[in-house]
Amino acid sequence: MIAALVPYNTLVVAAAVAAVGLAAGMVGALAVLRRRALAGDAAAHGSLAGVATAFLATGRRDLGWLLVGGLVTSLATLAALVAIRRWTRTRDDAAMALVLGVSFGAGVALVTGITARGLPDSAGLEQFLLGHTAGVTAGDAALLAVCALGAAGLVTLGLKELTLVAFDEAFAAAAGWPVGLVDLGLVGLIAVMVVVGLPAAGAVLVTALLVIPPVAARQWTDRVGTMVLLAGLFGTLSALVGVVGSALVPRLPTGPVVVLAAAALAAVSAVAAPGRGWWSRRAAARRALVAWREGDLLASLARGDRPPAGADGALRRALADGLVARGAGGFTLTAAGTARAADLARRREAWARILATAPDDARAFLTVDLPDPAAVIDGARLAEIRSAAERCR
Amino acid sequence: MDGAGGDAMAPVVEFHDVTVAYAGRPVLWHVDLVIRGPALYGIVGPNGAGKSTLLKAALGLVPLAGGRVTFDGGALADSRARVGYVPQRETVDWGFPVNVMDVVLMGTYGRLGWFRRPGRRERDVAGECLRRVGLADLAGRQIGRLSGGQQQRVFLARALAQEAVIYLLDEPMAGVDAGSQELIFGVLDSLRAAGRLVIVVHHDLRSAAGWFDGVALVDMRVVAAGPTAAVLTAENLRRTYAGQPAVLEELARAVAAGGRTP
Question: What is the ipTM score, two decimals?
Answer without folding.
Answer: 0.80
